[in-house]
Amino acid sequence: MASRETLLKILDLARWAPSGDNTQPWRFQIVADDHIAIHGNDTREWCLYDFDGHASHIAHGALLETLRIAASGEGLATRWSLRPGSPERAPVFDVRLAPQPGLAVDPLLPFIETRVVQRRPMRTTPLTDAQRRALAAAPGRGYRVRFFETGAERRQVAGLLWRNAYLRLTCPEAYPVHKEIIEWRTRFSKDRIPEQAVGVDSATARLMEWVMASWGRVAFFNKYLFGTIAPRIQLDYIPALACAAHVLILPDTPATGTEDHVRGGIAMQRLWLTATSVGLHLQPEMTPLIFRWYARAGQQFSALPAIGEGALALAGEFERIGGFGRADSLTFFCRVGVSDTPRSRSLRKSVEELMLPGA
Ligand SMILES: Cc1cc2nc3c(=O)[nH]c(=O)nc-3n(C[C@H](O)[C@H](O)[C@H](O)COP(=O)(O)O)c2cc1C
Q1: Element (H, E) at 197
Q2: What is the rounded CA–CA span in Å between residue 144 and residue 271?
Q3: Measured between alpha carbons, how far is 141 from 222 in angstroms, rounded to an integer?
Q4: From ligand 1's centre to the CA of 116, what distance in Å?
Q5: How far does the centroid of ligand 1 lie from the alpha carbon of residue 19, in Å?
Q6: Per-residue confidence (pLDDT) for residue 224, from 0 to 100
Q7: Which of 178, 179, 171, 181 is closest to 311 using CA atoms?
Q8: What is the reported pTM?
Q9: Are 218 and 211 a contacting pair, CB within 8 Å?
Q10: In the prediction, which pLDDT does 359 show?
Q11: Which residue numbers in the chain have pLDDT < 50?
Q12: For residues 329 and 143, what is the distance between their CA atoms, to the nearest angstrom?
């Protein structure tokens, strides 16, 4: 079967899969020469955005798909299964690898390492027909893709994200997450988001670093100095207009359990790698979905009643703009467009750091 070197090479590529806030909620274990176990975890204990672990499960799906694509480069086919009885907060995925003569190398393989999030404004050059077709087909069976492309549609989404960002920035429960995940004054970060990839100019970054040192400062700044305006313009409103399109992935049947969200992550990663392959950059816009998950599940996520009310109102606005119903599941939302490659990006923990001892 495969040598340990081959399996390590595959894992070395697979670790480039994206995860919310670059949390990399996984550890690898080489169980046998045809068996890798992925030990997942979720971050719901400390991360407001990991509603019921969904964002982590989506990242697990992205990892499994990236692993599959990487293995195709070694002539190996993969099959994954969720280990029965493994806890929802710590799911284990068993990946079996088998040589398959004549297996085609997946055409997305060259884009595993170049795929990157672009949070800055992109060009408004419209999608070509070929790009739109590629994106629509990327998630595969069981999903459909909805585009928001016209100026009017992008303005509607920009309005949604503007109001969504107000919730994000004034929610006390989101503050520790924001504080934790940005690595200030850096261009690259192996386990967080480096400041320069956040998408603000350096003067705003310095101010944010100072203000975010305590919730007291954030609350004062928000209340008396219109503190949410500058970041919302730079991080939400302008980028929402400055793109070719917003893209929404919807499942044909509602997502109910861990495996459904993992499959959603596979669809997301296929869309993201395909976007890269057709010359587009992409930024996930997941917080409107996440706040809608809370709102539609009737779960309070903030001690401030106004935040919960805001999330409910936003869920309704999202449904109106998208033309879908309260009960419809949404898998992934993002913006795409042509842009220069970001100068700054998140890196990853090394394979050695991610590796658990063998079985
Ligand atoms: C499930 C999920 C949700 C994400 N949500 C957001 C988001 O709402 N906004 C954003 O700017 N990036 C979001 N990201 C992008 C991650 O922050 C990014 O992938 C990670 O920091 C690694 O950076 P890279 O993709 O450039 O390698 C999300 C990624 C995943 C997998």
Answers
A1: none
A2: 11
A3: 45
A4: 9
A5: 6
A6: 79
A7: 171
A8: 0.98
A9: yes
A10: 67
A11: none
A12: 11
